[in-house]
Amino acid sequence: MAVVEAITSEVEPRLAAGDSSGAVVPLAEQLRPRAGSAEAQASAQLRSATTIVLVVIGIAVVLLAAHLLSRRGSRDT
């Protein structure tokens, strides 16, 4: 059941009857799974961004080390 359907079929009749606390429960039940999936998606995006940053830093460190080692080798000869 979609959120809009829950509002029209469960929430609005309870609000019309004056049962505001009873109207909150079905709405919360419909919104809870959507909030969980949004949190999981945000967490996955954060992990992805962190992974990209770590890979870029790793590549930069390797390139810097290779540069420094190549300069050291040219000074020795």
- Based on CA atoms alone, the radius of gyration comes out at 28 Å
Distance N to C terminus: 76 Å
Structural class assignment:
mainly alpha
Low-confidence stretches: none
| Strand fraction | under 5%
Instruction: Kindly give the count of domains.
Output: 1
Number of strands: 0
Mean pLDDT: 80
Number of helices: 2
Indicate the percent of residues in helices.
over 70%
| Helix and strand element order | HH
Query: Which sheet architecture does the biggest sheet show?
Result: none
Short description:
This protein has 2 helices and no strands. With about 80 residues, the protein is an all-alpha fold.
In words, what does this structure look like?
Helices cover 92% and strands 0% of the residues. It is mainly α and 77 residues long. The chain has one domain. It has two helices and no strands.
List keywords for this structure.
77 residues, mainly alpha, 0% strand
Topology:
Elements: H1 3-16, H2 20-76
Helix pairs in contact: 1-2
